[in-house]
Amino acid sequence: MEKKSPHILNASSNLLGFSLIIITSLKITKMSEHTHLDEFAGLASILFAFSSFFSFLAIRTEKNKLETQYETIADYLFLIALFCIVLAVIIVTVKIID
């Protein structure tokens, strides 16, 4: 089976930066007071950070059982964080349409 950890690490670290840009731009524009967008982006940032951490651990460990566990944790955290980003995009889209 192909290792997913390097892919998870790459994608989650990139999306962590994207989430932090969302939070920064919301604070600059003072839009964070009117939506729950910053909460979703903040939660996504935390989850992407932990996903990066666990995927890094999966890459560095030499025990196969631990590697599989870390990779699974990183995968699920990445999926939940991705869902948070999708919710944030939906909120932005609704705000733009209104």
From TrEMBL:
Keywords for the protein's UniProt record, in alphabetical order: Membrane, Transmembrane, Transmembrane helix
Transmembrane segments: 7-28, 40-61, 73-97
Protein name (Swiss-Prot/TrEMBL): Uncharacterized protein
Species in which this protein is naturally found: Chryseobacterium antibioticum
